[in-house]
């Protein structure tokens, strides 16, 4: 059991929701759920009950929560003491983040830097994927996350930190079950997809080219939370990341039509000529 699992346990207990805890911890909902499940397997007890109003502590969970909070407080005091006796690396690190990039990879970087280098100030800036490389070159970003399929420029170093799949889905009950693989039928539906400059937007455009036609009704949305809301609300079919699709299917919101791409890499990147800067080295060591 590690400190990150205890943080997830305490956050879910305090928030009463995996979704709110994941946002607080900069982790994905599946990652927080995995932490809780791992703790329950290690301890051999059930910590939470899922209710219509959220996550409620069991009797065992209620008994263990004060111990977890005490451990987290002791851990923070240890870090504070270490900061007093160690000359810490300081400065500002500006992190560029492309739209819909893995929040788990970003959360890992921010969490580890905060823990090991508490004097580093971090600014997180969101930008379209196409602007990430330019932002590194012009100095807007020190490091960045992006899932662009483009070949990295010669002046870039890249580290693949994770990957995700992309599915085509429809609102539950919207489509004729026997026509879901019929492109002519699908092209007649309203589609909700990101702009062509994004990774998923490019996948949609490639799918249209592969099928030889573009749906007549397109709604462009670059925020995946809004995409999920519109699709599950019956507006039309669309592309979503597979972890989002898994959650939406469990809630009965969407039906899977097909997998568009099973593995889209997510990269952490920085300029080669800055590789020896201490703050860049700290970021690299925290992400690997």
Automatic annotation (TrEMBL):
What Gene Ontology molecular-function terms does this entry list?
A: DNA-binding transcription factor activity; transcription cis-regulatory region binding
Looking at the keywords, is Transcription regulation present?
yes
Instruction: Tell me yes or no: is Kinase among this UniProt entry's keywords.
Output: no
The source's superkingdom equals Bacteria
HTH lysR-type domain mapped to chain residues = 1-58
**Keywords for this protein:** DNA-binding, Transcription, Transcription regulation
The family line of this record is: Belongs to the LysR transcriptional regulatory family.
Q: What is this protein called?
A: HTH-type transcriptional regulator CysL
| Name of encoding gene | cysL
């Amino acid at each position: 059991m590690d400190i990150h699992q205890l943080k997830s346990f305490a956050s879910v207990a305090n928030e009463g929701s995996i979704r709110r805890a994941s946002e607080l911890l900069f982790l994905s909902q599946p990652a927080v759920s995995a932490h809780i499940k791992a703790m329950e397997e290690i301890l051999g007890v059930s910590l939470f009950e899922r209710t219509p109003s959220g996550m409620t502590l069991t009797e065992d969970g209620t008994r263990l929560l004060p111990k977890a909070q005490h451990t987290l407080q002791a851990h923070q005091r240890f870090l504070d003491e270490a900061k007093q006796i160690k000359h810490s690396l300081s400065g500002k690190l500006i992190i560029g983040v492309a739209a819909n990039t893995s929040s788990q990879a970003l959360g890992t970087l921010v969490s580890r830097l905060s823990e090991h280098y508490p004097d580093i100030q971090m600014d997180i800036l969101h930008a379209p994927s196409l602007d990430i490389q330019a932002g590194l070159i012009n100095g807007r970003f020190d490091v960045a996350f992006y899932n662009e399929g483009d070949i990295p420029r010669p002046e870039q170093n890249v580290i693949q930190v994770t990957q995700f799949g992309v599915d085509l889905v429809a609102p539950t009950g919207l489509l004729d079950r026997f026509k879901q693989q019929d492109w002519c039928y699908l092209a007649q539906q309203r589609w909700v997809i990101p702009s062509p400059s994004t990774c998923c937007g490019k996948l949609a455009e490639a799918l249209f080219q592969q099928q030889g036609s573009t749906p007549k009704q397109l709604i462009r949305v670059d925020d995946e939370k809004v995409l999920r809301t519109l699709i599950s609300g019956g507006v039309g079919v669309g592309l979503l990341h597979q972890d989002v699709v898994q959650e939406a299917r469990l809630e009965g919101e969407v039906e899977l039509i097909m997998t568009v791409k099973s593995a889209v890499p997510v990269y952490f990147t920085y300029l080669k000529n800055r590789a020896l800067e201490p703050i860049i080295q700290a970021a690299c060591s925290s992400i690997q």
